[in-house]
Amino acid sequence: MSARRLWMIGAGSALALIPPIAALAAEAGQLLATVDRPAILTATPAKALESTAADRSGPRVIVDVTGYQPPQKGAVRAVVKVQKPDGTEQEIGTFGVFPNAAFRADSSRARRYSFPLPKELAAGAVKLKVEVVPDKAQESGEGAQLEIGGAEIQ
Whole-angstrom Cα distance, residue 145 to residue 127? Predict the structure, then answer.
């Protein structure tokens, strides 16, 4: 066998492994949202909650955004939904990145967005979906990406 043929077989084998690896990563949580695919993640309760502060304002979900790529034209917004125990989804808020400019940040410098969480869902971890949608109906939002760093319940 020639070296080129062996290289082609090796490269083909490596490429064949990409779909199973991508499927495993998707099961763990999709943290990159585009207009075609939402980010799916789990929000867990914060380790230390002051009961008086939580009782006063109610439970909240804090979503950390660690990266953003604006669309080629126009603007987009993110829609945050929580999954209820019966499998249905409930929208809990929307946000837009301002200014509408690309950024990347580590988790300590992430932009944080806070949304009220229904009290009946605050007992444990909840699944969240973050969708990227065009701000105006005539826009496509093509090229927009939102990288989610994580989420917690406070």
Answer: 20
